[in-house]
Amino acid sequence: MGENQTEMVREFVLAGFSQTSSIEEGLFVLFLFFYVLTWVGNVLIMATVISDNSLKASPMYFLLGNLSFLDLCYSTVTTPKLLADFLDSKKLIPFEQCIVQLFFLHFVGAAEMFLLTVMAYDRYVAICRPLHYTTVMTQGLCCVLVGASWMGGFVHSTVQTFLMISLPFCGPNEVDNFFCDVPPVIKLACTDTFVIELLMVSNSGLISTSSFVVLLCSYTTILVKIRSKEGRRKALSTCASHLMVVTLFFGPCIFIYARPFSTFSVDKMVSVLYNVITPMLNPLIYTLRNKEVKSAIRKLWDRSRINWKKQETGNIEVSF
What residue stretches are annotated with the G-protein coupled receptors family 1 profile domain (predicted)? Predict the structure, then answer.
């Protein structure tokens, strides 16, 4: 008995999506395409916000730039390992790397939840208190709120990780997902995890559900306070992008974390939605529905093209 207790798991096997090499190769191409789009879209939004003085001075776009950075980090926590595993039949991940992946997944994920809540507050002030918007949503307050979002994510993730590493893992070692997350990993612990699961569900489920409720209350308050139909239409148009992002992100998270850690057949697909698809769609949602962002992107493109032509002309002159 004592000998078995010392034989702890040193690595996990990620189940992935399929064991058929041809299917895995096709999925590799598909998810690589998603990941490249995620990088291009989010980097483009960050570069646009940084390069445009009017956007950079706006609290809304300052928060949007931070959201794009979080989306990029969130996708990078899981997707590179997923892409590598599509080309590797073993799909192994050392125990330490699994815990690190779990930590950053919850760190960035919770920070994004808090930031989306902050963005809802920003929209509330902009629509319901427009005359006080610039005095309330100052640059200093925005930095504090973003910093608080990161700190909240760090605290949440530290608690989750501490609870996880306190458990013994002595086999089996196959994680029923394509990345290390609390629900599939905790089931591999060779001890009773009822209390730990209850604490983790309370932690993750409470954060995701309460943030979502706050967001819904915020937008409901906005619509209630605006009396005219035209005003409500403009408010809905302004907040529609944020509502779409909130629904895509919070819906799957609540499904996964706000229930007991039992396994459902759709869990992997839901995980793909909020780990891979949502970070890719966020830049498209904000860009396609926002005239200011589209205008700033066109200006950035024109400046880049002019600079490229100048460099090309300079190279030709030097060659002569």
Answer: 41-286
